[in-house]
TrEMBL record:
Protein's recorded name: Sugar (Pentulose or hexulose) kinase
Record SUPFAM superfamilies: Actin-like ATPase domain
Entry keyword set: Kinase, Transferase
Domain Carbohydrate kinase FGGY C-terminal residue range list: 247-420
Native source organism of the sequence: Silicimonas algicola
GO-annotated biological processes: carbohydrate metabolic process
Signal peptide: none
Gene3D superfamilies: 3.30.420.40
């Protein structure tokens, strides 16, 4: 097997990539914005638009290169309800919608504790259980219309094959629906009256089936094309290292969300008030994790005019003592409820100095999460921040770690493609290590930032 088509739905963009398993490189990539529709009945994602986009991409990739398997990865904090005919029972709620907050007190009274689920209590619909509670209350007929509850990657596998499934990396992504220490569903599904509607759990690597005849007709793919179950996107970034790297180490998956995942680190008590949580990897094992909305923060501060975050600009920022303090998105991360502010001169929009100060801020926020999860060893960086020089240098200095940036455009696509590989033979993504351990100037800057942030 050589070419795997990866359906990769992120919060900001939907993407289809063709991954060459021999080189672990992306042969072809197409994207579209993951636009939220305003309603009715509530803000929701354009799943039918994504479906047309996916089918067209599969057709084009197969015509140009050939496709031998399909795998799926998506963002978390999402669930899809399907009726008896296999259609949507209701549109898939945008997890940033504030509707669930209207009944937060009622939900808090029924949700399982952090000690059982590893899920911190989050705002809006970031806890899937809160989404379900609010949707069922808002639409009284929804429970009866719902025949199947699907995790989001498995919704696309279902549309491709007709085989319904759920999978632990999505169930274990701060949903309140999963007990990672016991490896089973939490009591919340029964409380919500959905205990018999959750689709069967399947391993991420499982072949759920081959593509449906209609999919084969619309894409030109052979009817025997296998479709793998699929995986949560941050866990797709983690997967190559779970399979091919010896702990301890941490993987930082960057995109709209920055997720820090520690493997084999120091055992610490996680603090849900600081946005730490327990994720579940593709092998079903709990993974201490932390997160903040780093990609969103990058876009907010850049204001549509990003510039290169060069090492020269970082040096100027350090000399001048310019700092961005948390939190740009105060609803998430280790310093929730704080209002962001600048120390010293605020660099102009569109300058490398602004980009470097922002890169340093994002690295220091990442390092805070790594500290909270007991990080030890190397730090692997996947996704767009792996190309940010200021971010990588500061992260190495402040953590005292060798930083390994992945060369892929996003680590999720390559990791997801590995689901199609037979066991063994995993080749880790290429990297050029960044080593700024012991850099006195960067460490002094980081120490000053931390004193202010933790005050």
């Amino acid at each position: 097997m050589r070419h795997v088509a990866v359906i990769d739905i992120g919060k900001t963009n939907a993407k289809v990539a063709l991954v060459d398993l021999d080189t672990m490189s992306e042969v072809a990539v197409v994207t579209r914005p993951n636009t939220v529709r305003t309603g009715p009945p509530w803000p929701h994602f354009d799943l039918d638009g994504h479906w047309s986009f996916i089918l067209e991409a599969l057709r084009a990739f197969h015509d140009a290169h050939g496709i031998e398997a399909i795998s799926v990865t998506t963002h978390g904090a999402s669930i899809v309800l399907v009726d008896r005919e296999g259609r949507l029972a209701t549109p898939m709620l945008d997890y940033e919608h504030q509707g669930p907050d209207e009944v937060a007190a009622e939900y808090d009274a029924i949700r399982p504790p952090f000690e059982q689920t590893g899920s911190p209590r989050l705002s809006a619909g970031l806890n899937v259980g809160a989404q379900l509670h609010w949707m069922l209350k808002t639409d009284p007929g929804l429970r009866d219309r719902t025949a199947l509850v699907l995790t989001y990657p498995q919704y696309w596998s279902f549309r491709l094959t007709g085989v319904a499934a759920t999978e632990v990396t999505s169930l274990g992504c701060h949903t309140d629906l999963w007990n990672p220490s016991e490896g089973k569903e939490s009591a919340l599904l029964a409380t919500l009256g959905l205990e018999n509607k959750l689709a069967p759990q399947r391993p991420a690597r499982d072949v759920l089936g081959t593509i449906l005849p209609d999919v084969a007709a619309r894409t030109g793919l052979p009817a025997t094309t296998p479709v793998h179950c699929g995986i949560h996107d941050s866990n797709a970034s983690l997967l190559p290292y779970v399979l091919g790297k010896t702990p301890p180490f941490s993987v930082v998956s960057t995109g709209t969300w920055v997720i820090e995942m520690s493997m084999g680190g120091e055992a610490l008590a996680l603090d849900p008030a600081r946005d730490t949580l327990v994720n579940v990897n593709a092998l079903g094992a709990p993974v201490p994790s932390a997160r903040f909305m780093g990609g969103r923060e990058h876009d907010i501060v850049s204001r549509g005019s990003p510039a290169p975050a060069t090492l020269a600009a970082l040096s100027d920022v350090i000399i001048e003592g310019v700092m961005l303090m948390p939190s740009v998105v105060p609803e998430t991360g280790p310093f929730q409820g704080r209002a962001a502010y600048w120390v010293g001169r605020e660099p102009s929009i569109g300058t490398s100095e602004r980009a470097a100060a922002l890169g340093a801020y994002l690295a220091l926020m990442t390092a805070e999460g790594l500290t909270l999860t007991g990080h030890r060893g190397d730090v692997v960086v996947e996704g767009p921040f792996a190309r940010n020089e200021a971010y990588l240098a500061m992260l190495s200095a402040v953590t005292g770690s060798l930083v390994l940036p992945s060369r892929g455009s996003t680590g999720t696509s390559q990791g997801c493609a590995l689901l199609a590989l037979p066991d063994g033979g995993v080749t880790l993504p290429e990297t050029t290590p960044v080593d700024r351990r012991g850099d006195a100037d960067l460490i002094a800057y980081a120490d000053a930032w931390r004193r202010l942030a933790r005050a």
